[in-house]
Amino acid sequence: MRTLTDEKRNAIIAAASAVFQEFGYERASMNEVARRAGGSKATLYNYFDSKEALFQTVVRTYSTHFLTGAAEELVTPESESLTLEQKLTRFGERLLGVLARDSQALALYRVVVGEAGHSDIGKLFQEAGTQESMEALAGLMRQHIDSGELRDGDAMLRAKQFSALLRAEVDSLLVQRETPRYSEQNIRTMVASAVDLFQGGARRAG
Hints:
Elements (H helix, E strand, L loop, with lengths): L1 H26 L2 H8 L3 H7 L3 H22 L11 H13 L1 H4 L1 H13 L5 H26 L8 H13 L16 H19 L4
């Protein structure tokens, strides 16, 4: 019974991802999700009590788990012996791994960007893992600001600045009809550039 329950939940999440990508968040309906998942609307609500909860689960499944995983790289026991450059590199490569492994993540991000100005989708996206992960990155920045390795400044702002450097090339994909796929080497090159630029501007001189 447990296996069947998990299979049904996964089917609903997959159907919902397709519906959100096709219709956007506002126009997506629970009726359509239920139809594509092959069940009733009542069954759907047994798993997810609202469209908001379903969207957050879809985002966690296909998108922000990459960011969550990247943040977890910052607090593993083995990371304590790494340099700031190594930590930022591991974070960046884990984050941008989405470009090589999951096109759905970028498609969902497009939905968020496209509708953020006229719905609560941006807030839901943040609550689905983005904010928590950025706070972890800010914690790393605060640690190295306090140690004197980085110049004084707001830790969260530093986290946002580094994140923006990582996304510099990714954001341009949002306006392209066809999304290119990147190799692991492409990602390593993009991350190395972002880390170099960030440290060049934020590292304390001397």
